[in-house]
Amino acid sequence: MSLETILMTVFSSTLIYAAPLIFTALGGTFSERSGIVNVGLEGMMIVGAFSSTVFTLSFSNALGTATPWLSILVGGFFGFLFSILHAVATVNFRADHIISGTVLNLLAPGLCVFLTRIIYNGKGQTPIIEQGLGTYTFPGLSKIPVLGKILFTRTSLVAYFAILIAIVSWYFLYRTNVGLRLRSVGENPVAADTLGINVYKYRYLGVLISGFLGGMGGAVMAQSITMNFSSNTISGQGFMALAAMIFGKWHPIGAMGAALFFGLAQSLPITGAYIPLLSHVNSVWFQVAPYVITIIVLVIFLGKAVAPAADGTNYIKNK
Amino acid sequence: MSTSVVEMRHITKKFGNFKANDDISLTLHKGEILALLGENGAGKSTLMGMLSGLLKPTEGQILVEGKEVEMESPRDAKKLGIGMVHQHFMLIPAFTVLENIILGEEPLKGGRIDYKKASQEIERLAEKYQLDIDLKAKVADITVGMQQRVEIMKALYRKANIFIFDEPTAALTPQEIDQLMKIFRALADEGKSIIFITHKLKEIKEAADRCIVIRAGRVIDDVMVADVAEEKMAEMMVGRKIRTTVDKAEVDQSKAVLEVKGLNVEKHGLQAVKNLDLTVHTGEIVGVAGVDGNGQSELIDALTGMRKIKSGSVKINGKEYANHPVREITEAGVGYIPEDRQVVGLVLPMTISENLALKNYYRKPFNNHGILEYADINQNGKDLIEKFDIRSQSEKEAVGSLSGGNQQKVIVAREIASKPDLLIAANPTRGVDVGAIEYIHEKINDERNDGRAVLLVSFELDEILKLSDRVVVMHAGEIVGEIDPKNTSAEELGLMMAGKKIADAE
Amino acid sequence: MLKGKNKNALIIPLLAVLSGFIVGAVLMLVFGYNPIQNYVNLFAGAFGDVYSVSETLRNMTPLLLTGLGFAVSSKAGFFNIGGPGQYLMGWFSAVVFALHFHALPGIVLIIGSILCGALCGAIWSGIAGVLRAFFGTSEVISTIMLNYIALYYVNYAIKTWLAPKGSDSSPNIPKKASLCTDFLQNLTHGSTFHWGFFLAILCAFAVWFYFNKTCSGFEVRSVGMNPSASRYAGMNVKKTIIVAMIISGILAGMAGALDGIGNYQNISVSNSTPSVGFDGMAVALLAGENPIGMLFSALLFSALQIGGLSISVLSTTPSEIVNVVMASIIFFVGIKYAFEMLIIKGVIKKGAKAKEAGNQ
């Protein structure tokens, strides 16, 4: 294989694996920027993966090629609904954020497999989706010499979309007044309240956006990688996304960068076999590498990461 | 001065069965500076909480500009032109000054925040009211004085006409206090009205036109400041005469307990303590005066083993203890009342007994080969609760449920009960009520009279001057001078704290 | 006052359990299943006869131990999601020990395997503890990463060293190394119940004793509640963090070891990290991290899991309904504030009524 082809393979599979993580890590960023710790991303992804798969299986005949794309929005919508639980528990009922997030992670697989069995005649997994997101070659851009082939040929369109969302998220959080207020309730809710900012409202906003993005992340996972839903569809990606968010210092662009790095690491066990230098290396090293590298990077470069000051605290308004 | 801008009529506020405010009435006139005087817990903050929309009165009316109002939230108060500057600043350290000021009132341009327009508006106000602030700095990086100016600017930016200040001078240097008083005057001259909550009489004399005294939730008196002496106001506040001196016994002060030589300490790579020499003798209270952030915390942390010493020597009873573990230093006979009782001094969810044993749980008789003897620990708790008059239901009650003053008493009891040779006390009376202050002062002075060495760090000049045998002044990590508290006024001390060496001051 | 608190401490978990079952019932009704019949089946499946009781108790063993492990680290202020990895390392190393030293006498093999499992669990959690203590690395990330490292490493090791060619499982350990003896099998009508159960119960009491009576337990609690104050009091915070993390890993590793030589008798390649590590969190959370309370919460969750199996055997209801019930229970534990408000309001109303009655 030529170097170009190898790079193209590496790059596109990195994007494919990174896309779900980017969406979900961004979701985590919104939630935690508003002060609500979100260890329930995994559960949100599961709900997104399940609902999008059911949607695709039910409507692909009627809606054709647009189905997987619409299903991502469907996954987002159900992730959004699911996250209401987390918002109610943490914002209104002062639940410990970690307990509430754990509940999402416990509830989602049980509920979704339960429903899968009901919908698909007692089977614990759905049939395979016939039409996934597939790969995409950018018209025009792919003609650029060298780079066109590496970056824009047979690649993951949804990953580019995810990167776009990351940039939009940054703009939203750091350039708009809603973003400023959302971050303020995650830093010092008491101060925000004295300025007439509705702490509950903005925390809800953070969690619900988080649910939507987490659901989208799960949907992308199902529509581009596993191609069905079962209890194994989401196996730790939510936690990886959480790690990416912390790795990225609770910043949308940082979270995206970390998610891309994890995507590369996750794709290496598959693409490594095609890379001449790496093909003799035992695959276990590729499998373990991303996790080891993450720990090392954290130890060397980050040390104590800086979370939003009021992350994980409940705001109790006294009247 | 006859037009009233605020009238509070027969305000009562209950929390459960507790009446924090009991039938309080108050009037504020246009262009007036009104002081609200009272002890901690007297109900001042509750009263102002209702005026700023944070709390709702149980009974009574509030009139602003002659019209009865009901405020559901701070937003409503703001609409009425009421701006509150809280004692604990309501700022977001991670945000810039500019972001802090405009938060909640952001000017927009095409969906994004128009920072340029906001800066221009704020700079105009800053010029008008002589408020020096750096809009681009992060709040985490600016001085306490500037943080307060940011708070004032927040209110001005929101077009406030009525300013409420809750203990505005608590963390300021004497110079910053002067500056603040000037800002008060400037605001009043522009027709703004000010209420400030305080328990410091000097400031009332200096800045206020009128003073309302509150005790135990009720108005005790409403006086024109010019007509009343400070001592009289103090009596009204506490309800009895208070002692401003302590009895010092003649004791042997010949032996050095703590000897610090050439001490250097770094914080975040910056030199926080520079080449510092300090000696504390038996039977002596040495006061360290200085503005917050001039190396006092780092000095104490270094002495107690909680921060690494870069160079220099720390001798306790003649033995070197620089960079020794905390526990060894404690065992060498050092007691330490830390500045932040809730974060450093106590484990709030643990019981009073456990907290009283926090420093010697691992020794006999409490520890028996790795097993804790809770019977002894609780008995010890019972004894100390009685001895130090800690108001509590039981020795097994969580320390977190005690009042601030009683929490502080738990720490004082623990540190004094261990009979240390050297007692280090950092702002030992911060945020506790007058009764507890007197008690703690006496206990510290008793230690001195018993021949122990005491190192007292405090931002309260009155406390330093009242207790100390000698006072050293710290500025920018150095000791810039030593004074005799009997012959020095608070003003002279203030100048030194701002960095003037004695020679310059004269 | 104190008594009232204790009462609430018991009422809330009970209310939470009840509410969880109600949620499950509503869900079943919505989809046309019979909740009462299913709950009866569940109960019978978990406690109906000697065999099922034994299965429930056997399944409770790892739940209790991983729960205890989570609780110990949590008391030290540590969110240890590394249970699955530590459990897996314990399981793996216990099986390896039993296979490798097969010539040793049975009792030595058993003790050695358990110790080996505990040790490997401790190493795995200890890494996270050291990283947190000395580098401030978030234990949330490091334990997640360590879970996956354990998963892939163990899979690789099984395939490369343990499993015969073409197989994904290690051989079974020698019979003499098994905790599941003939005596117990006869007694429990051929269930998988094993001696490890008693060890787990012992551990619960040991953890209780550790926190409430020992010097080291006091330090762990103190550091967990307030590290600054603990440092001020002269405790070695770093050491304490590591100690707590190691104890936590010992318990999770032991859970894996007991399952390995008691229940499974071998180890197989797996696609995902073992869920029992996470279920342990639920056990700890329901009991408010009280070791004695966890005896009951572990029993409950184990009964749900074991009894849940017979739900789908005896009806068309998917057995995952029990996972929904479990999650709901923890949800209600989480929002205990809502219950507290209900209780307080209820009490106030009662009080007001009593007053009215008194006035009349």
Q: How many strands, which pairing sense, and closed or not: the largest β-sheet of chain B?
A: 6 strands, mixed
Could you spell the SSE succession of chain A in H and E letters? Answer: HHHHHHHHHHHH
* Unreliable sequence segments of chain A: none
Q: For the largest interface in this structure, which chains are involved and how many residues does each contribute?
A: A-C, 47 and 47 residues
Descriptive account of the structure:
By secondary structure, chain A is mostly helical. Chain A has a single domain, classed as Orthogonal Bundle (ABC transporter involved in vitamin B12 uptake, BtuC). Chain A contains 12 helices and no strands. In chain A, helix 2 runs antiparallel to helix 3 (67-92). The termini of chain A are far apart. The model of chain A has no long low-confidence stretch (mean pLDDT 89). In chain B, 33% of the residues lie in helices and 27% in strands. The mean pLDDT of chain B is 88. Chain B is of the alpha/beta class and 506 residues long. In chain B, strands 6-9-10-3-11-12 form a 6-stranded mixed β-sheet, with helices on both faces. A 6-stranded mixed β-sheet of chain B has the order 18-21-22-15-23-24, sandwiched between helices. In chain B, strands 2-1-4-5 form a 4-stranded antiparallel β-sheet, covered by helices on one side. With 360 residues, chain C is mainly alpha-helical. Chain C is 78% helix and 0% strand. Chain C is built from 15 helices and no strands. At the B-C interface, helix 10, helix 11 and strand 20 of B face helix 9 and helix 10 of C. Chain A: The chain crosses the membrane at residues 6-27, 39-63, 69-91, 103-120, 157-174, 204-223, 259-278, 284-307. Chain A: It holds the Pfam family BPD_transp_2. Chain A: It comes from Ligilactobacillus ruminis.
Keywords:
heterotrimer, A: 319 residues, mainly alpha, ABC transporter involved in vitamin B12 uptake, BtuC, B: 506 residues, alpha/beta, Rossmann fold, 2 domains, 6-stranded mixed beta sheet, 18 helices, 33% helix, 27% strand, membrane (chain A)
